[in-house]
Amino acid sequence: MYEQRFSGVLVSALLAVGLAGCDPPGTPVYISHPFVSPKGDYQTNRDRYHTFRIPGMVVAADGSILLFAEGRRGDGSDPRRDDNAPIDLVMRRSLDGGATWEDLVVVESGFRSDGALLDYADPTPVLDAVTGEIFLLYGQWPDIAPTTVAHGQDPDSADGNHVVWVRSSSDHGKTWSHRRQVVYPDEPDETADAHFWRQAEPGPGSGVQLRWQGQGQAANGRLLVPAKRSGSLTPDGPANVRPFVYYSDDHGAIWKVGRVTPGPDANEDEVVELVDGTVLLDARQNSGDFRRRHRSSDGGVTWGPDRPDSIPLTPVDGSMVRYSAARSGHDRDRLLFSAPRGSNGLERSSITVWTSYDEGITFANPVSFSEGFAAYSVIQRMADGTIGLAVETSGEAGERYGAISFYRFDLAHLESGTLGK
After folding, report:
1. DSSP state, 359?
2. Which of 9, 153, 190, 211 has its CA 20 to 30 A from that of 73?
3. How far is residue 143 CA from its own chain's centroid?
4. Whole-number Å distance between alpha carbons of 317 and 380
5. d(Cα 117, Cα 39) in Å, to the nearest integer?
6. Integer Cα distance of 33 and 327 in angstroms
7. Secondary structure letter of residue 235 according to DSSP
8. pLDDT 10s digits, 79-132
9. Across the chain, how many H-helices and E-strands are there?
């Protein structure tokens, strides 16, 4: 086993493993651990982290894999929960399909030059396949703040607001542009739902680019980045949370805001384009056992009613991606969905991938990759047709959120014994 140490963090290289009862013959699953959480005592140093969480992933135009995460200090808590514990946005890049990973890069540091401490969160990348440029949207939070932040979008941390930034890379993630603020409508007279928008946080996970919006449609080439907004009827009143998307029709120059889903409340979400041009949104439910699913016929601007899934799952950030489409020359239509299956679906364990052959109406043939702890995940088709799955796991020490692991496997691993059905 190849090992590399970076700032005291052990990173295991690619391993071929056979998971008992899970691994069809001849279809090995390869695992690496690009982020391993050291845990330990309270950390506030620039080069020390307690926990890595919240994976975001994109496959660049050259086939390299960019995997993003939150580098959390303190006790590893969510943004704005732990005083004097800034959160960095970090990235590792792989040029060999996840076998090895380049050194950790800090994309955005929570230690600001003016002495302020901030939390950066929810990295959500999207590739523009037309230009080859990658865009990364992410949120900025005060280092400590209430559950629902103050209304406003002033980047000055003293005001305690939520802020959205975007950076881009035109060299497959080697370097990044200066950040630009993405300002979203937040006053009732300018928001479609007449709410004060107090947060409009991206993802996490990944975005998509539309390509099947009809002949001559302006939405072809549109970039979509899933997000969720916290809104209230008064500037400081109780808030509800609804998904929406950021979208750009000019290759990332300007980002616009779509309308929120009509309810019920839901949180972190993913989007995928169906072969008829419909956009399917899958979101973590705020209540109940079933995920929220909405469809859009106008490229993600507005959404139809909730069509909840029928598989009971714990509230968690899952992932959905298109693997293949008959209209693109593949043998059949496939969507892949990842989430922890748990015991009866209602706990964070046993990361599992389901396949849909009917454009998201049903998801079947669950294949589990580990029976241990599992939480947030993001799944992508790799440049060579294999599948990459990044997921929060327990790590070697068996601690919850001990690592972000990367699984790579063939389609045959999901379809062994089911082909032709």
Report:
1. T
2. 153
3. 22
4. 15
5. 20
6. 36
7. T
8. 999 999 999 999 999 999 999 999 999 999 999 999 999 999 999 999 999 999
9. 1, 27
